[in-house]
Amino acid sequence: MTDLTPTETKDRLKSLGLFGLLACWEQLADKPWLREVLAIEERERHKRSLERRLKNSRVAAFKPMTDFDSSWPKKIDREAVDDLYDSRYADLLFEVVTRRYDAQKPLLLSTNKAFADWGQVFPHAACVVTLVDRLVHRAEVIEIEAESYRLKEAKELNATRTKQRRTKKH
């Protein structure tokens, strides 16, 4: 762990709401264990926060790739599947979709790519077909034809900045 300045240590104590320790700062400032206790408290709070949010989301249990029954398909190259499963982003999305699907809970998803193009978005993911299948199985797909709102906002911001620069020059 990197050494913290006294100010940084006090800020961490304050952000954690450890006001009793802050009140005894003069007695604790030089204690070698204080920074480690802070790190432990921050890690545990972060862990509990994630666990609480996961519980409140009512998402079902993860289904890791190791639980995949490779004897189910008539033919499968397990090594090829393992190699393809390096695409963590697709895996994470797949986990979210699978949990919502299995729990029969709603999921709102916005994409600027047609489902047919998802193989290009996740080129090394073995789960793309299943992912799309689960997304559309009980879905109401609403197509929106419009310019990207981010692009629209960026153009408006750029126009405002250009106008401001021109005003400053004159």
From TrEMBL:
Pfam short name (any one): IstB_IS21
IstB-like ATP-binding domain residues: 89-155
InterPro entries assigned to the protein according to its UniProt record, in alphabetical order: IstB_ATP-bd, P-loop_NTPase
GO MF annotation list: ATP binding
Protein name: Putative transposase
Species per Swiss-Prot/TrEMBL record: Sorangium cellulosum (Polyangium cellulosum)
